[in-house]
């Protein structure tokens, strides 16, 4: 912290309740708490607190309360406390400010301005407890038409490879190194148990996780970490990562201190060195180049696995998505402005990109207009917070959604944004073996499965209310949405009518 910056958080300790157990002292990786044996006192250094609330949660006597420091400086609509604090930090360090998690700025969250429909009388609602509701989703290229044998009625159209998920919710790519081994194990186990997919992210794929390959998407990113033929062949699908919502246009950086021996082995790089992913894929400078890589990955995997292209939601997302589909992508993943990250320059995370809702609507519309919507599935990512967001995303045109931050929160993340430090007190965004142990993978698996189950039940309730019994029938069905509090141009981009219309 800069020498003159006030603390962001205040740690209140009720001394009468404190039993000097030192749980807080041992639990805080940011070394906020210390015990003075001479005076038998536990003290806190507020300026070190990042607001992760680990100590507060584990204090056996509830003696601790961590509060946001309102910093009672003279109000100034221009120079807000965040600007002053960031500026002070840069005056102190002379470096790019890093951050973790997703964009927390008050850009319009369109999910909260879209309302869902419900049926009555003429198209009665469906009771999901009594009637079957289909959430199963097939991800991959679909044919423009289906042909059947005249004699036996058998399907004769050859279908491309499909990924089958039991709910339209898939875990998004988070690299091994950015998040811990136990977090990866939990995501793998939950994907297996619930019938969805886990994504390796760009950090390679530990060999022992290959037993989960039937439900794994492996990533091929610019750093090409850990990629070999077995990596590609053992997975259910391959994802070419062109962009990421939290940091469009720039590469990745896993600091050397997080590159432990197992991370290094998985990434196929030396331990203790920075793992740098270049900003562009160095063999992709055009759609033709992208087509060559898609073709090469399909050839390498015997044309048996769908290839996904992940792009960040920026101004030309619709054109790029169209190009990627024409280049042979079977799935397009679009990652919006609020997508999470293990580490990103704060200035990029907070100022580059567009909200997923607008990008998703634009991509779906463009593919429909060009008559190629069937040629690829769409995965929407970046800021999916609830089952309602999932339903609205599908009504806007997605086939399914990716969740990253929501999955981390289900495992215990408190969104403190300190992922880049390697000191995550919850054992999630760490590689340190001692901190990794804090996340019990079996308990985390249970929480993830519960989340998927709860959201899936809620999705069925919403579908039933709309009189729809299959998620497939909701895709791109914007008549089920109405906008509130939106400008005309926003309704136009979203392709949604205003409420009452
Ligand atoms: S965890 Fe609670 S009871 Fe234990 S030393 Fe810290 S403040 Fe005191
Ligand atoms: S993963 Fe850990 S460090 Fe990152 S935001 Fe969540 S609690 Fe904080």
Q: Care to describe what's here?
A:
This protein has 501 residues and is of the alpha/beta class. It has 2 domains: 9-95, Alpha-Beta Plaits (2-Layer Sandwich); 173-498, TIM Barrel. The chain has 15 helices and 21 strands. β18 (377-381), α11 and β19 (400-403) form a beta-alpha-beta unit. α4 (181-194) crosses α14, α8 (317-326) packs across α10 and α11 packs across α14. The longest helix has 26 residues, at 441-466. The radius of gyration is 24 Å and the shape is globular. The N and C termini lie far apart (53 Å). The structure holds iron/sulfur cluster (SF4) (2 copies). One iron/sulfur cluster (SF4) binds at residues 13, 18-24, 42, 59-61, 63-64. The site of one iron/sulfur cluster (SF4) has 14 residues, from α1.
